[in-house]
Amino acid sequence: MSSFRSRQRSQAGRHFIRPAAEHEARKPEAPAERRAPVQREAAVRPPRELDLFAPCPRGLEGVLARELAALGAERVEAGDGGVGFVGDMMLMMRANLELRTASRVLLRLAHGRYRDERDIYALALSVDWPRWFDVSRTIKVKTDGHGSGLRSLDFVSLKVKDAVCDRFRRAQDARPSVDTRYPDVRIQVYLDAEWATVYLDTSGEPLFKRGWREETGEAPLRENLAAGVLLLAGYDGSQPLLDPMMGSGTLLIEAADIALNRAPGRLREFGFTELRSYDAVAWEGVKARARQAEKPVAPLAIHGSDRAVQMLVKARHNLGRVGLAGAVTLAQRDVLDARPFAESGLIVCNPPYGVRLDEQDALAELYPQLGSWLKQHFAGWTANFLTGDLRMPKLMRLTPARKIPLYNGALDCRLFVIPMVAGSNR
């Protein structure tokens, strides 16, 4: 048993959740009539100290922990698939707005041992749900688990939904409605072999949905993973950066947001605005301070290219949607035709990795060419490749300085970090 899980048991299991919630399918915007505002109730004063958990793509826990520490979070504890922390309502709002690598920000409301669904029902019933949201809000319950012996996680969700409704009936003789597509309030349950934890989702839609994406390539890189790759590569906005396989431009946009210190959640809404404790004035202040910290948009030392003209069109469109038209330099070219535009810098990219045998054979032919291309043209640069093809460095005939395990969804990947020193690796 890992030291993290040991601490979890001894502390009544503060947090343990894999980021399954981040694998939700992308949903279309709700119809306008469905999103009609409901009458606001008076705000309820929240606890001064909130027990929070931020899931993230596996492999980014350390990066996320550093982000949270920089925001002023307390008792920051990285685990498998996320980071637990403590803060007040203001910190929760800032975390949703400003974290680059988190998938969600969850508020822990209950935690306890269970043997069957009845124990989980009782645990959920112990939560004072009317304290957190009004009966007029619609709800959705989602259950994830690892090592649970229960036969149906969907049945657990049903029992938790029943507990929420029963608690409202006792207090108000009314119950909230369920909306599995566009809920106002999302409730997340996590089960391991012994413990159940009930969370209130303060984010709403996953945080990798920044609020701008329309166009994507065949396999777009999720925004929070892209940001994590950049931060693991050491990018802070000051170095020249090149993505010679840019696809729809996700890495370029995340890099520009880092360089301009722009909050990644500035274009979207969040689930905490549906809670009783929501303070609209405080939230406007949080957003205003984030806007004041932004740097003005100007041409950046960020270049991207792709051999497919349709990717160039999509990337240009996406950059325009986030107000970065002209700030990032784009070109249509084959990767082997890309050249450095500074004496040193970072190459960061997510090259294709084949699934079919013919794709793997094609990549096996490409990798030695990539190795030669780097040696001939990019001395002084550091190449960072996120790939699920673990053959890549060997076939490139280059030795990575670091091999960082990451997960792109369920796919086991590596971030290969390869410094290109003049005269080396020849």
UniProtKB/TrEMBL annotation:
Note the SMART domains from the entry: THUMP (SM00981)
Q: Which CDD domains match?
A: THUMP_AdoMetMT
Where do the segments described as Disordered lie?
1-43
The record's PROSITE patterns line, in alphabetical order, gives: N6_MTASE, THUMP
Q: What ranges does the record list as Basic and acidic residues composition bias? A: 20-43
Q: Which UniProt keywords apply?
A: Methyltransferase, RNA-binding, Transferase
* Keyword RNA-binding found: yes
Show which residues constitute the signal peptide. none
The THUMP domain, residue ranges: 91-202
The question of whether Methyltransferase is a record keyword is answered with yes
Q: Which GO terms describe its molecular function?
A: RNA binding; rRNA (guanine-N2-)-methyltransferase activity; rRNA (guanine-N7-)-methyltransferase activity
Where are the compositionally biased (Polar residues) regions? 1-11
**Name of the protein described by the UniProt record:** Class I SAM-dependent RNA methyltransferase
**Source species:** Crenobacter caeni
What are the top taxonomic ranks of the organism? Answer: Bacteria, Pseudomonadati, Pseudomonadota, Betaproteobacteria, Neisseriales
